[in-house]
Amino acid sequence: MEDPVLAGLWEAVRQSPDNVPLRESLAAMLLERHLYRDVERLVREGLERDPDRPGLKVALAEAFYGLGRFGEALAVLDELLEGDAAPARAWLVAARCHHEREDPRRAGTCYRRALALDADATDPRLEHLARPRATPPRRGDAPTGTGRPGDALRRPDDDATFGADDPDDDPLLEFAQGDAPGGRFEPYVERSRITFADVGGMQSLKDEIGLKIIQPLQHPELYAAYGKKAGGGILLYGPPGCGKTHLARATAGEVEASFLSVSISDVLAMYVGESERNLRDIFGSARAHVPSVLFFDEVDALAASRRDMRQSAGRQVINQFLAELDGVDSDNEGLLVLAATNAPWHLDAAFRRPGRFDRILFVPPPDEEARAEILRVLLRDKPAGDADVGAVARKTKDFSGADLRAVVETAIETKLRTAFKSGVPEPLSTKDLLAAAKAVKPSTREWFKTARNHALYANEGGLYDDILAWLGIDR
Length: 475
Prior knowledge:
Rossmann fold; Serine Threonine Protein Phosphatase 5, Tetratricopeptide repeat
């Protein structure tokens, strides 16, 4: 039977959606009843109206904790804990999350901070962390154990947290210095300032991304009518320097979503299990900022075929990546995953399954119109006079955006040599740019030599038909 008190509060929230204190009261009652998904929905709507409300952030973190999504809970609390206004409840939730993630040092720090703010903010499971243990002996100190077997061999982290009286070892300093809770990697969340209007050409790619990513966010009611959710994954592949990263950033700007760019160095770590934990935290941060675009550059380094791996560590990273894409323990609605690679043939086939990277889009070198637009952008702040970018675009077939940048830089260097002799700087001309275009060789041709073999002899299910079409090869 439905609780009449809860039903009344839900109705009151519907009648007064901007009443944030009312939302907090309802969230507290829902948390008492362990209705965590209801809390998440209720609080997310409230944060859209008041994104800096501490009570709503703590309630959302508590809901994530109840759902076992500890990384997401810490991501929500991150900014709050760095300030001076974090309530005791926020520190208590952070302590519980660190405890579940087997990080007793940070769990103890957060729990003691919670107790310092409110003596009633207790948790029986964390009571052993309530007092800072004695600072462990530093290297070279004589052991000071109690005589129990193993005292001299016990590592400091086995059963002790660093003493808060020692400023060099106080974990709170790490918070003050901006480290993310848990000491894990937290990707930089930005708001992209570019949109599709800043991307020359690529109209078919824009249309495909629009259907998969942009339209579901702009017209959720239409997609809901067909039972489709906003979110999903798109893999961009093609020669290097052709604007895959630029297109991903423009996608985020088009829908005014958070943009998180991740490289291989942000994920891979030297210790076993740390890479998988980094992936969990990265996806957790992206889910905490939905709608968001999570972009993986050179994804083939993280998602290489498991058939080529001899060590199990790499396989575990791939398995974790697949689990995050599937949203096994979390809801990926509103999370848009874009990835770029120059070598799609090295990717594990499991990533191409529907629901993961179910759209694989070829990003070719820019066409003539796009090359002209790229040249205009590159020359925007240069003394280019009345240079005919159209004429240069016609002479730079197969050039990537990076190649076109090299053309402009080469022309500038030639002009500088002349200016050093004459002492008079002169603007770039069409002739200068055409001469530079002859000196620069398009880098994409080498890539197409390799891609051609894969498209002809390893084209499973027509995956590389776009490459064959670009090369003018009929099959």
